[in-house]
Specification:
CATH class of the largest domain in chain A: Alpha Beta
Radius of gyration of chain A: 20 Å
Number of domains of chain A: 2
Number of strands of chain A: 9
Helix content of chain A: 40-55%
Largest sheet of chain A: 5 strands, parallel
Oligomer: homotrimer
Strand content of chain A: 5-15%
CATH superfamily of the largest domain in chain A: Aspartate/ornithine carbamoyltransferase
Structural class of chain A: alpha/beta
Number of helices of chain A: 11
Largest interface: A-B, 26 and 24 residues
Chain lengths: 310, 310, 310
Amino acid sequence: MSQLDKDIISMRDLSKDQVTGILERARYMDERLKARDPPRSLAGRMIASLFFEPSTRTRLSFETAAKCMGGMVTGFSSPKGTSVEKGETLSDTVRTVEQYADAIVMRHPFEGAARLASEAVSIPVVNGGDGSNQHPTQTLLDLYTIWKHKGTFDLKVALVGDLKHARTTRSLAYALGMFGADIALVAPKGLEMSTEVVDEVRQQWGTNITHAHDPATSLGDVDAAYVVRIQKERFADPLELKRLQRSYRITKDTLASLKSDAIIMHPLPRVDEVETSVDQSDHAVYFDQAYNGVPVRMAVLEMLINGGDA
Amino acid sequence: MSQLDKDIISMRDLSKDQVTGILERARYMDERLKARDPPRSLAGRMIASLFFEPSTRTRLSFETAAKCMGGMVTGFSSPKGTSVEKGETLSDTVRTVEQYADAIVMRHPFEGAARLASEAVSIPVVNGGDGSNQHPTQTLLDLYTIWKHKGTFDLKVALVGDLKHARTTRSLAYALGMFGADIALVAPKGLEMSTEVVDEVRQQWGTNITHAHDPATSLGDVDAAYVVRIQKERFADPLELKRLQRSYRITKDTLASLKSDAIIMHPLPRVDEVETSVDQSDHAVYFDQAYNGVPVRMAVLEMLINGGDA
Amino acid sequence: MSQLDKDIISMRDLSKDQVTGILERARYMDERLKARDPPRSLAGRMIASLFFEPSTRTRLSFETAAKCMGGMVTGFSSPKGTSVEKGETLSDTVRTVEQYADAIVMRHPFEGAARLASEAVSIPVVNGGDGSNQHPTQTLLDLYTIWKHKGTFDLKVALVGDLKHARTTRSLAYALGMFGADIALVAPKGLEMSTEVVDEVRQQWGTNITHAHDPATSLGDVDAAYVVRIQKERFADPLELKRLQRSYRITKDTLASLKSDAIIMHPLPRVDEVETSVDQSDHAVYFDQAYNGVPVRMAVLEMLINGGDA
C-alpha cells in the first residue's frame, strides 16, 4: 500500500490504495476504541485545530481523535479576535501556528483555503471543510460506515435529497465510484447532481449511475440510502417545497419498502428529513456514522503525523 | 451505601445515602488534591462539557475536576456556531456527542433541558444548571463546605438575602432539611422563600424553619450564614433598594454579632453583599467554597462514570 | 543566579541575573523541544489561561508551553459570558481561579490589570499583555531570539517603524540597554520613541542610542533590525502615509544594504511592513521568533511554578 501525501485536502488527491489504507487503519482504531485501548501514537504531539468557521461536530471529533491517541490540542473555535481580524494573511497565520504544532486541522469559509495553507507550511494540513468545496474526512467516514456495515462495496448506494447543493454527496459519489459501487441518484427535479460531477465519476471509474425522482419507488433494491436535506432557501413556492419535503422524508413507511439489511445514513445535523421514529430501527446507522468520525480521523492524523504506510 | 443513578439532574433525585456517599468521596478527593496526588480514575475517559449558556466558574471547576483525574475534555463554552443554531434538536446534539464521550456535563438556559438530554442518551449526564431550575453540584458543594468546616449538620444555618429568586437557596434548604439542620430564613419583605418550597422541606424532613427580616438581629445564634444577592431589577423604588442592600450587606460590624466559629458562605460572584474587608476574617469561607467545587465534582464524575458505590 | 519573584508583570521588575537565568533556561527548553523530549516538569499542574482580550498568538504559545511540559490548561479566550460580565471584580475572579490553578497567565485590555491580579492572589501571575502597557514575555522572546541567532549582546540593534506607539519596542529598548547593546532608533518624524523612554534607558544603562529617519541609509551597520508597523490611524494625510510606508517597508532591496549576517525581526502579525519575498532569506527570523515564544514561556512557567533558581 502507498503512503499518504503530506496533506489531506480533497478526495481527488487520494489513490484507491491510500483510501483503502485509511479504511483499514480506521477499522483497527475502531477495535482499539471499543476495547478502550487506543494506541498512544500521538503522545507528545500538538495538533492545531483552527476553525475559522464554527463546526462543533467536526471539531469535537477531530479533537477527540487527537486526544484519544495521547495528542495535545490547541487552537480556536471561531476566528473572533484572532490575528486574522488584525489583517494577517492566512499564510502568515498558519506559518506561525506551524511553529507550535505537528499538524493543522482547519475549517475555513473560503474555497481553496486549505490548499493555500498546505502550500504555506511543511507540516500536514487536514481540510476540515473549505466553504462548499471539500471535506474529505466526511467522505472517508461515510465510506468507512458503508464498509463497516456491509463488508463490501459490491453494492447499490442511493444518494437522496438535494444533490445539487449538498457538498457531501458529490464527494461521496466520486469515492463510491472509486470502489466500484453502483449509484442511484434520487433527487427532486431541478435539484439533481450536476452533469459535470456525474460525467466525471462515470468517465473516471465506469460507474453505473441511475437517476430517479421519487424515493417511494426508488429505494427497494438499494443496500444503503444516504439522505441529505432539501433546504427551504432553494424554493420560491412554499407549497412545492412542502410537497417535496414530505415525499423525501424517511418514515416508518419508507422502512417497509427497503431491503431487510439496507442501511440509512445521514451526515447530521438533520432537521426533519428522517423521522425520529426511524432512529430505533436497525436500518438507522447515522449516529454510528457520527461515531465513525473518531476512528477515521484517528487513522488520518496518525498516518499523516507519523508517516506510517497507508 | 447505595450507588448513584445514571445521572445527576436534581437534588430531589438523590437519596440521603447517595448524598452521604458523595460527601465522603469528596472529602477523600479533597485530601488527595491537598497531597497533590489525585486519583487517575478518569484516565482515557472523555468528558463532554456542553455549555449552551456561558458559565466560567462552573465550567472551569468541572473541567479541572475531570483533568485532575486524568480525564480528557472536549465541548464548547457557548452555543455560537454549534449545530443547535442550524436547527438541530437537543436530543440529536447529545446523541451525537454521546458517540465521542463517556459523560456529559451540561448547562442550558431552559428548565428541563438536562432531564431531556439524560433521557436521550445512555451515558451519564450532570446538570450544570438548567435555567432557574436546578444546579445540583452547586448544592452538593455548599453542603460539603458546611460539613467540612463544621463536621456535622447538627447546626442552625441562615439563608440570607433574596430567597424568592435565588435558585441556590431553594435547593440548599431542601438538602439541609435532608440532613437535619435547622434553617433560619432571613429575607426582605416580598423576597421571602416561596411557601411551596418551605412547606415541602418541612413536610418531607420535619425541618425546623424560622423566618426573620433583619440580618442585624437574626444571625447571633447561627453556625453558618449563606448570603445571596438582592438584585436591583426586583425593585421599582431605588431608595428602598438602597436601604435593603445596606441592611443586608455583611460588614465587619456583622461579624461582631456572630458566634465566634460561625462561617459566612456565598455562591459567588458577589457584587457588594459581602464587603471585601470581611474576606480576611476566619468567618469567610466563600473562596474555599469555590475550591470545594473541584473535589465535589471529582467525586460526582468518578462515581457516575466508574459506577463506584456511593 | 537569583530566583524569580512570585510574578512576571513587567521587564522592569526583573534583574539582569533573572533575565539571564530565563534566557539560559529557554535555551535548554529549546534543545529539549528540538529533541522532542521536553521536561515533564508541570505534570499535574493546572495553568489558568485568562484572556479578557483575545490574542491567539500569545494564548496558543502559552498553552503549548504548558501542555508540552505535561501541564493542564483551563480558562477562557474572551471575556464573553464570564462572571466579569455579571459585575464581579477582577480581584474576586482571580481569587476564585486561584482555587483551581497553580498559575495564572492573563491578558487584559486595561493597564495595571496584571499587577492588580498579582496582588490579589498568592499563586504566580504572568502578564500576557495589559493594554498598551507591558507584555514582558514578548520582550523576553525578542531578547532570546537575538541571543540565539547572534550569541552575544555586543551588537547594534535597530528598532524600525512607529516607535511612538509600539509597546514592544519600548520594552525591548530597556532590555537591550540592560544587556549592553547599542540601539539605533529609526522612526518617521513625529513617530519617534518618547524622550522619557530614551532618557530612562540611557540613564539606567548608559546605552549608546542614535536616531535616524531613513531606513534606506540607516541599517547598513546593524546586527539586527526589529521592524514594527506604521499604523494608518496615525496619519491625516494619506499621501504622506503612503510615502512613509513605502520607505519603511523591508524589501529585497533593503536586504542588499544589510550586513550579511544581520537578522530581521518582527513581532507579527505583519501587514506589509516586510515583503513576503523576504521570508525565504536567511536574514528573516520572524517565524523562528514566533517559535521562540514556546521555549521562553516554558522557562518562565517552570521557574515560577516550580520555584527553580533562575
